[in-house]
Amino acid sequence: MVFYKPNIQFLSDHSVDPDKRRYLLASEASKHYIDIDRYGKYPYKELPASYDSAVKKFSEDTIMTNGIVPWWVQTVQARLTNAFKEKNPAKILKLSAEIGHYVADAHVPLHANSNHDGQLTGQKGIHAFWESRIPELLSEKEFDFMIGKAAYISNISSFIWKRVLESGAEADTVLQNEAFLTSKFATDRKYAFEERNGKLVRQYSSGFTVGYNNTLKGMVERRMRTAITSTASLWYTAWINAGQPNLKNMQPLAFSEEDLKEFEILEAAWKYNNIKGRLHE
Ligand SMILES: [Zn+2]
User: Fold this and answer.
1) Digit-coded pLDDT (tens) for 157-204
2) What pLDDT, in 10s, does the model give residues 65-90?
3) Helix, strand, or coil here: 202?
4) 39 CA distance to ligand 1 centroid (A)?
5) What angle, 0 to 180 degrees and rounded to 10, lies between the N-to-C axes of helices 69-85 and 89-105?
6) Mind listing the GO molecular function terms for this protein (predicted)?
7) Residue 176 CA to ligand 1 centre (angstroms)
8) Residues in contact with 55: Cβ distance below 8 Å, sequence separation at least 6, in sequence order
9) Rounded CA gap, 185 and 80, in Å?
10) Cα 223 from chain centroid (whole Å)
């Protein structure tokens, strides 16, 4: 309450920095997903939980191509813990915004499946449909984001792997339900020209969006709620593991020249570049 709440605007603005970075660096993309189905069958016992063991078994190339989000979350978490130890408010906020992004991505079923945009099954567009169109249309009025208190996470590796396994397990439902509903909808009712950010664009119609969300029985809301709890709990855990530094005296913020430069570069890359590496993450 004393530290994060006054900086809620910064956290919100900068939670998308990792996606902007994808317009700058090809190496960024793999931090946002894991194609876990490439490692056999649920619960993927063949895939070691530790990064080093996984690389030893499958090669760094394969691990990178298939995505590293469960490991990357742990790396950012270690950095966040260090920022708390250093009592560096600018660093804490930057890393808090970033870990929120990566851990939330890990809660999205299509961030844990190789058919990540339905590209293998003629369902292109489903990625943004699930993670953008549904929340944009329904979250404000219909989703409940009161989630209660953050909890201490004693084993971060097993925590993030659990979330990723849940996501991977739900990917089939995400894809199958869309295909089923499509078979029931005339194309001219599936898509419609509707307003998005003040512009008229062709997108999944409201009717199709609401219908699809109903077939998912609250999945999008549930994953968003869990993502919020996970983010809050990781922040809280980093603070505990850093020895609970007093946050009251950590205002106001001062970002270094370097930070400000980085924000500028990210913003420009996102505005003027094409995306690098894999799309739709
Ligand atoms: Zn992302």
Assistant:
1) 999 999 999 999 999 999 999 999 999 998 889 999 988 888 898 999
2) 999 999 999 999 999 999 999 999 99
3) strand
4) 22
5) 160
6) hydrolase activity, acting on ester bonds
7) 23
8) 63
9) 47
10) 10
| Mean pLDDT across 99-111 | 98
Distance 44 CA to ligand 1 centre (A): 23
> Which pLDDT does position 279 carry in this prediction?
63
> Can you read off the two tokens belonging to residue 217?
């029985």
Q: How far is the CA of 188 from the centre of ligand 1 (A)?
A: 31
Give distance in angstroms: CA of 18 to centre of ligand 1. 6
Is the predicted pLDDT of residue 8 greater than 80, yes or no? Answer: yes
Measured in angstroms, how far is the CA atom of residue 249 from the centroid of ligand 1?
32
Helix 89-105 to helix 219-241 angle (10° resolution) is 150
Cis peptide before 70 (omega within 30 of 0): no
> Where is 259: in which H helix or E strand?
helix 257-272
Residue with token string 């808090």: 96
Q: What is the pLDDT of residue 277?
A: 72
pLDDT digits (tens, 9 = 90+) for 28-48: 999 999 999 999 999 999 999
Distance 252 CA to ligand 1 centre (A): 29
CA of 280 to the centre of ligand 1 (A): 8
- Please give the domain boundaries of the chain with CATH numbers for all domains: 5-113+136-168+218-272 (1.10.575)
